[in-house]
Amino acid sequence: MKRVTLVLTLALAAGLSASAAHAQTLKTIKDRGMLSCGVSQGLPGFSSPDDKGNWTGLDVDLCRAVAAAIFNDATKVKYVPTSAKDRFTALQSGEIDLLSRNTTWTISRDTSLGANFAGVNYYDGQGFMVKKSLKVNSALELNSASVCVQTGTTTEQNLADYFKANNMKYEVIAFATNDETVKAYESGRCDVFTTDQSGLYANRLKLANPNDHMVLPEIISKEPLGPMVRHGDDQWFDIVKWTLFAMVTAEELGVTSKNVEEKAKSDNPELKRVLGSDGNFGEQLGLTKDWVVRIVKLVGNYGEVFDRNVGAGSPLGIARGLNGLWNKGGLQYAPPIR
Amino acid sequence: MSTEARKPPPQIALKLRRALGGKAGWNGVAVQLAFAAILGWIAFEIISNARTNLANQHIAAGFGFLRNNAGFDVNQSLIPYTGSDTFLRVFVVGLLNTLVVSVVGIVFATVIGFIIALCRLSPNWLLSRVGEIYVEVIRNLPLLFQLLFWYLAVLAALPNPRQSISLLGIAFISNRGLVIPSPIGESGFAPFLAVLTFGIVASLALRIYARRALYQYGHMIRIWPYVLGLLFGLPLVTTLIFGLPFTFELPQLKGFNFAGGSRIIPEFVALAVALSTYTAAFIAEIVRAGILSVHKGQMEAGSSLGLSRGATLRLIVVPQAMRVIVPPLTNQYLNLTKNSSLAVGIGYPDLVSVFAGTSLSQTGQAIEIIAMTMAVYLLISLLTSAVMSVYGWRINRSLGA
Question: Record's superkingdom (chain B) (predicted)?
Answer without folding.
Answer: Bacteria
